[in-house]
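How a chain folds remains the central question behind the approach discussed here. This step matters because it turns folding into a mapping between discrete strings. The sequence in question and its structure tokens are set out directly beneath this paragraph.
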Amino acid sequence: MVWDEIVACMPKMITKLKKDYVVKNDVIRDDIFAVLEKHCSVIYYPLVNEDNCGFHVKRMMNGKLTDFVYINTAKPLSKQVFTAAHELGHVWNVAQKIAKYLRDDSIVGMEEEIVNRFAAELLMPTNTFVNTFNKHVEQIEGDKSRIRLDDFIKVMVLQMNDYMVTYESVRRRLVEVGIISEKTAEVLKNDRKEVDELIKAFSDDINTTLDTCTNKKTIPGLRDLIEEKTGKPGVSKYVILKTVKDFEVADIIPSDDVIDLESGGNVDV
């Protein structure tokens, strides 16, 4: 019963949070990284042999409790996107806000389940998700209530591409919005060879970056920070050099060339 109440208030909570934090996109896709970066410090770094896709921690910085999120860029982009949305749920204290809204402090103990559902609702809004699913199904010939396995998985792969999420995320979301039953979802698990082969075949048909492992090594604003701190008292030269090496920050030599603006620097809109 408590979970039903949490799920029921989630869309309203997301609408309020998107308004409070000025998130205008209905379908966020990989824009989730820019949203996350506005609200915490994000470290992007590949750890190939690490199962963890990312995590969130709070640390004291300059006397202030600060949010940090790590994203493992050795994982496919679709996993990075969901991880970013999940960790944003922690940064925004979604579980605590829902607990306060429902006046039930015990809800905080379900934080991981709540932020997972938050990430799904944020990346795949119910009405939009159902509408795009229906449009894809309309392209299939025959009885729309009983769809062949290969056709259904093709639709799921299209949904993956629409929202830049994993197959597993779409499979779970189909149950959450009432399109398929839990029993049908079991049939669609990608640990079956037939299902896995269909996912790969249809994914290969689409010009998509879902399976791309970006392997990015960066912290937004890192270059400016290094330039600002280099040579300053109290800043270890070793730390600066190690950071430059670990994050592969390329050296940029200032150019003697200049670009002249016709407007003199003031551009009228």
Summary: Residues 2-20 form the longest helix (19 residues). The chain is about 50% helix and 10% strand. The two ends are 54 Å apart (CA to CA). Residues 127-205 form one domain.
